[in-house]
Amino acid sequence: MADFMFVLKNFLVVSLAMNMCLIWKINYDDEETLSSKWSSWGNLQQKFHFHGSCFNGEKNNGRVEEAQVSSKKTEILATTSYVASTVVPDGGESVVINLDHGDPTMYENFWKQKGEETTVVTSGWQHISYFSDVKNVCWFLEPELVTAVTRLHKVVGNAATEGRHMVVGTGSSQLYQAALFALSPHNASTPMNVVSAAPFYSSYPLMTDYLKSGLHKWAGDAHKFNKEEPYIELITSPNNPDGSSRQDVVKGHKGILIHDLAYYWPQYTPILSPPPDYDIMLFTVSKSTGHAGSRIGWALVKDREVAKKMTTFIEINTIGVSKDSQIRAAKILQAVSNSCDNDDDDDESFFDYSYNLMEKRWKKIREAVDKTRLFSLPDFSPETCSFSGRTFGQLPAFAWLKCEGEVDDCESFLRKNKIYTRGGKHFGASMKYVRISMLCRDSEFEVFTERLPTIIS
């Protein structure tokens, strides 16, 4: 009996030690994720409830119900599909708002109204083959997507499509890499220089140099590029992160241009006549319609050989692009065009809906900034949109916020106030700037604009 009690005591000690290790690990992981220290046993119980709700909770329409924590603890207003409408128990004071990523969840409410019009049903026997149209330069490009893209560009007037070769990619990021592959000489002694005017899209340097390719290299700010060497210049217009309209900067005779027009849609900027007619133009459904999860982008390319090389890159990289995603994207884009052609005054078009939402959000964020001397936003000159007939200034998908005065690191300053952003250094700019997503859900945006004026230095 004594031996049994001794073994039992040892077992209990080991069990207690293992549980303490588990408790420490959960506490450590949550501190890393939430930037917050929860130390009491009551707080630990909250954590177990939170984790259990996220991963073992009941599902409602394919979506896991969010945790509901009643006491005043730090939470993150997530932009994932797991948390559609986070409960804010204390009015939002303790909530961490993550506006770092441009996840376009603000479009969800519009698409919820469309129901069957945008529903795609695929039978098990469909889309089995690798091939879509072997006569096309881009042999894995679905004809339905070609029709939908061409129609939408004609409706909006934001790109010339006649005489172009269309290449489909897994988002515009893959198309960007494919374009670099196609435009960089494969027999050159040195890598091709790749530049973009600062502030530039933060992923350009990462994507350009990630594989340490001998074909191309990131050469930085186009304003500072003065080498007598071949180069590729990236022109993002409207620009990510600051929303400005862009033209090429270097203007050298050895340059090749790629125009990233992901945000050239009438909810963000006035569409001007005539439509852009550049050699390579990149677009994506993630910012045009909000369907980032479908991972579909397209390039309009003048030169057949460049389009073939881009297709070869994607063929080697991923052996084509998902047909299911292409068919879904085509259905969505057709619905957008249909909404624009609909004469029913009671049925709001997609671009009217998204423009009105962006206008309200920009009005609200400017009102919030005007209540404090700590921050400022860029101003945009109004122009008349050839698509809608409206006269307005840019309504960018991101706010390029500047911390005024003695705040030199705006990203860290806002992080202390539980607002996560992306700092200027990632865009080749001053740390006094941050990029803030304007595409989040209403609940997140409301808490953000209410908190911003309350921040003090």
The CATH topology of the domain at 123-341 corresponds to: Aspartate Aminotransferase, domain 2
Give helix and strand order, one letter per element, not per position.
Answer: HHEEEEHHEHEHEEEEHEHHHEEEEHEEEH
The low-confidence parts are: 19-87
| Overall pLDDT score | 85
CATH class of the domain at 123-341: Alpha Beta
As a percent range, the share of strand residues is 15-25%
Helicity, as a percent range: 25-40%
Distance, first to last CA: 67 Å
Radius of gyration: 25 Å
Strands, count: 18
**Shape, principal axes of CA atoms:** globular
Specify the biggest β-sheet. 7 strands, mixed
Q: Helix/strand/pairing class, anyone? A: alpha/beta
Specify the CATH homologous superfamily of the domain at 123-341. Type I PLP-dependent aspartate aminotransferase-like (Major domain)
State the strand order across the main sheet. Answer: 5-11-10-9-8-6-7
Number of helices: 12
CATH architecture of the domain at 123-341: 3-Layer(aba) Sandwich
Domain Alliinase C-terminal: 97-455
Family: Belongs to the alliinase family.
Keywords: Aminotransferase, Pyridoxal phosphate, Signal, Transferase
Pfam families: Alliinase_C (PF04864)
